[in-house]
Design a protein that fits this description.
The complex is a heterodimer of chains A (318) and B (230). Chain A has 318 residues and is α+β, with helices and mostly antiparallel strands. Chain A has 10 helices and 12 strands. Chain A has helices spanning 18-21, 24-36, 43-49, 74-79, 93-96, 121-127, 154-161, 199-203, 255-259, 302-305; strands spanning 106-111, 117-120, 131-138, 143-153, 169-174, 194-198, 208-213, 216-217, 227-229, 242-248, 283-286, 293-294. Chain B is mainly α and 230 residues long. In chain B, a hairpin with a 4-residue loop joins strand 1 (173-174) and strand 2. Chain B is globular. Classes of the chains: A alpha+beta (318), B mainly alpha (230). At the A-B interface, helix 2 and helix 9 of A face helix 3, helix 4, helix 5, helix 6 and strand 1 of B.
Chain lengths: 318, 230
């Protein structure tokens, strides 16, 4: 398995200043749109600003994903969040989650496993090798970011607990603390947040449990202290603030498939050919960019994951 | 130039308030856009906020008639046009942002999106229905269309629920099953339904009798009220 998606160190001399980095196509598109909308002339500078990572250490390389797109800024990643446990206001999550208690924290791993275990967050950080993974995250709402996560493979955790032979799926659960998470008092959702993966998806090298962002401990607004990241699926599959991981034989239900069964399926692989019933998934807006870009099959990870779905009709198994 | 005194004689506080609200909301949006204060996804934020202002103004224009029935505040009836036209202004900006800023005037992609996706179809229909109403808002059309004018403008009772549906269907969740991110569209939906119900003549009479009873109670307590014949 090649490591294209891992962090690629870049010599400072090789760094292209981001203002020149905008691809010709994006630039021409942006210029074309600007020609038609004179009012928006000052939007061009706007497009560059939010994607530049923190410049406290200007000698550090600009982080990029394996396709060459720059990572979004720490500010954008930690201040634009769909974390309905706190609020449905994307920019309000950061302040509401500021006081959220992430120490002590345990993750109970149980179910169809030979060695069930409850890990403290310190155990997870020390026992499993943490590495940086720069992944794209594609929201079902048709926006996306490039995010430099720090974490460890879910596979290494599962190997530690030894799934039993009848284990077919992995179920995840978020913490339930309505006194600290005001959104969990909303009757419109079946709290706590639940998600699931097929066992082979969970064991895939791309699937990580993320504990940090830009080398810092995970911000509360991004699902501290530990969350899942499954980059080839829509963002809502990447469940945050995990407290339970259970190995099960039956496909588990998920919060969003309970809210909208026709819209949010179990697999929810990023698929430009399979629209949401009410809006198209063929294009997306990369946060920080001016024009839309086309959505890639499996969010650009087709080479790594398409095999998992060989023979499956992805319009039926959405 | 009008003196201050004449200005406030010509324009009522309500009128001034409506114009200030409508224009300041736009100024705030534009200001926030250019000072990068519109979230990390400013185009989506612009679409959503202009849409919210449009539907809010639409609902306010619908509120005028029942509020007049309840409170006998006849000035409200004269403000409907301004509120409706401002709703149309925001709806137009909303559509321009969708077509231009969001989809870059890629017409084939836009039409594909419109015809494929229910929530956009509903939005498109809502906007198209608003156009003749906005166009004929002015007095000259009342003369030209005669009785037809009132009929035409009753289409607003179709437009309002369609606008709520467009709003609700853009959210993640199931509006009709009360699941997911539906609280705001739900509130607008309930308000619109209440206003639609109040248009039914029997309900309108009931509302008027409620008003009369309240006025009667005030009169009994010796509180000055503007007593108008029912």
């Amino acid at each position: 398995m090649n490591n294209k998606y891992k962090s690629i160190p870049v010599k400072p001399s090789e760094i292209t200043p981001y203002s020149q980095y905008l691809s010709r196509r994006d630039f021409m598109k942006a210029a074309g749109i600007l020609a038609g909308s004179a009012l928006l002339a000052s939007c061009a500078p706007r497009a560059t600003e939010t994607s530049v990572p923190p410049t406290a250490r200007p000698d550090l390389p600009v982080k990029m994903d394996e396709l060459g797109d720059p990572a979004n800024s720490f500010e954008d990643i930690s201040n634009y969040n769909n974390y309905y446990e706190f609020t449905t206001d994307k920019t309000g999550v950061a302040s509401l989650s500021e006081e959220f208690n992430t120490k002590p924290w345990t993750v109970e791993v149980y179910g169809l496993v030979n060695k069930p275990k409850t890990y403290g967050i310190e155990d997870l950080l020390s026992k499993f090798t943490q590495e940086e993974r720069i992944y794209r995250l594609r929201c079902v709402e048709a926006w996306s970011m490039v995010i430099p996560w720090t974490g460890f493979t879910l596979a290494s955790l599962l190997k530690d607990v030894e799934p039993a032979s009848d284990a077919k799926y992995v179920r995840f659960e978020t913490v339930y603390r309505p006194e600290e998470m005001p959104g969990q008092n909303s009757p419109f959702y079946p709290w706590p947040y639940q998600e699931g993966l097929r066992l082979d998806e969970a064991m895939h090298d791309l699937t990580i449990l993320a504990t940090g962002l830009y080398g810092q401990p995970m911000p509360n607004s991004n699902g501290a202290p530990v969350r899942l990241v499954v980059p080839w699926k829509y963002g809502f599959k990447s469940i945050k603030s995990i407290v339970k991981i259970e190995l099960v034989a039956e496909q588990p239900s998920t919060l969003w498939s309970m809210v909208g069964p026709g819209e949010y399926g179990f697999y929810s692989n990023v698929n430009p050919n399979r629209s949401h019933p009410r809006w198209s998934q063929a294009s997306e807006r990369r946060i920080g960019e001016f024009s839309r870009r086309e959505t890639l099959m499996f969010n650009g990870y087709a080479e790594q994951v398409a095999d998992l779905y060989k023979g499956m009709d992805l319009n039926v198994n959405y | 130039m009008m003196t201050m005194k004449k200005f406030f004689q010509r324009y009522t506080p309500l009128q001034i308030a409506i114009h200030i609200y409508a224009w300041s909301a736009l100024v705030v949006l534009v200001f926030n856009f250019f000072t990068h204060n519109l979230t990390a996804n400013p185009i989506q934020a612009l679409e959503q906020r202009t849409g919210r202002h449009a539907i809010t103004l639409l609902v306010l224009s619908l509120a005028c008639t029942p509020l007049n029935t309840l409170f006998r505040w006849s000035e409200l009836l004269k403000r409907r046009r301004a509120l409706g036209l401002y709703a149309f202004m925001y709806a137009t900006i909303h559509v321009i942002i969708f077509a231009d800023l969001d989809y870059g005037l890629a017409w084939s992609l836009i039409f594909q999106t419109i015809f494929e996706k229910p929530y956009i179809i509903v939005g498109a229909i809502t906007f198209l229905l608003l156009i003749p109403l906005a166009w004929t808002s002015f007095d000259i059309w009342k003369k030209r269309l005669g009785k037809g004018w009132k009929r035409l403008h009753q289409v607003i009772y179709l437009i309002a629920p369609l606008a709520v549906l467009h709003y609700a269907w853009g959210k993640k969740g199931d509006f009709f099953q009360l699941r997911g991110e539906i609280i705001r569209p739900l509130i607008y939906g309930v308000i619109v339904i209440v206003f639609l119900i109040l248009r039914i003549p029997a309900m309108r009479r009931a509302l008027a009798s409620v008003r009369d009873r309240i006025l009667f109670l005030f009169r009994r307590r010796g509180i000055q009220t503007e007593i108008t014949p029912p």
